[in-house]
Amino acid sequence: MANKAQQTRAAIRFRGRSFLATVLAPELPLDEWLAELDKLAGRSQGYFASRPVILDVTGLAITKRDFTDLIETLFKREIKVMGVEGADPSWLGFGMPPSVSGGKQTEILHKPSAEPPKQQGFVERTIPSLLIEQPVRSGQSIIFPQGDVTVLGSVASGAEIIAGNSVHIYGTLRGRAIAGSTGNAAARIFCQKFEAELIAIDGLYQTADEIDPSFRGRAVQAWLANDKMNMAALA
């Protein structure tokens, strides 16, 4: 009977899926870094809600106790760490996030500056795109890592657009726009009326209170140059 059951048992099926994760790279002293993290969470409510997070502690001079306390502290802030990069293998075990590798490190800088780079002629290219014809409501998350996302309406506060390439919004951007999410520093963000909670390109971000208020309510574009976030009004 046992052999017959083994013969008729269905085979185990494995499926692969890809998920976008936010990478947090703490800096010393940890208390100050956590304070800055709290400011970001306060300025952009719900940013870490249900969002996969990778904790990168590569080269960070901390002890096993420091590491354990950090994981616990993040958990209390409702930041769920799904994997750890750069940790001593002896720190990881039952009840701790698993070790991961291969992530891209990105430095976070602020303060917009410089003019948009001049385009020399036209370059023909084909990029996959996703068209959203309805407004994006609060609490919704549109994720398209394959290419551009274009929204014909507005993006409400508490909503977010995440694109592997550029983000185009023909209405008002009140929520979050994240471009270049798969490591594309050439991605841009365009919107007809800028009221954003947060914008990010290739991991570099700015929140509402860090952005020049003269851009609010205007048609703008954002891009990266020399590892800095830049913005300019659109004519």
TrEMBL record:
HAMAP family (UniProt xref): MinC (MF_00267)
Quaternary organization: Interacts with MinD and FtsZ.
Protein name: Probable septum site-determining protein MinC
Pfam families with a match to the protein in the record: MinC_C
Family assignment from sequence similarity: Belongs to the MinC family.
Lineage: Bacteria, Pseudomonadati, Pseudomonadota, Alphaproteobacteria, Hyphomicrobiales
Database matches in NCBIfam families: minC
UniProt domain Septum formation inhibitor MinC C-terminal: residue ranges: 132-230
Annotated organism of origin: Kaistia dalseonensis
SUPFAM superfamilies for the chain: Cell-division inhibitor MinC, C-terminal domain
InterPro entries recorded: CAP/MinC_C, MinC, MinC_C_sf, Septum_form_inhib_MinC_C
Keyword terms of this UniProt record: Cell cycle, Cell division, Septation
Residue ranges crossing the lipid bilayer per the database entry: none
Role played: Cell division inhibitor that blocks the formation of polar Z ring septums. Rapidly oscillates between the poles of the cell to destabilize FtsZ filaments that have formed before they mature into polar Z rings. Prevents FtsZ polymerization.
